[in-house]
Amino acid sequence: MATKPKQIELPGVERKKIKEIEDAAESYVALRDKRMALLEKEIESKAVLLDTMHKHKLTVYRLDDGRIVEVLPTEKVKVKASPEDGDGDD
Fold first, then answer.
1. CA–CA gap between residue 64 and residue 18 (Å, rounded)
2. pTM score > 0.70 for this model?
3. Residue 16 CB contacts under 8 Å (≥ 6 apart), including other chains
4. Nearest-CA neighbor of 4 among 34, 36, 26, 32?
């Protein structure tokens, strides 16, 4: 994600800068950008998993650790804990 160039301030119309806010905003933007990059990788990985399930003509697969990979009717894939392990999604 490209950042905008900083605006040049004209003499006599400078705005008051609050360094604490400037720093906090830069920190937030850096973390947000890392999260978005990770999200893109997650989406790609999920597509690979869905394609692999289709390749093997499976709609449900149990992993060695008990989690279940399930292809949903909406053509999405979900990995979740087995019913014995709890009902939370992974």
1. 53
2. no
3. none
4. 26
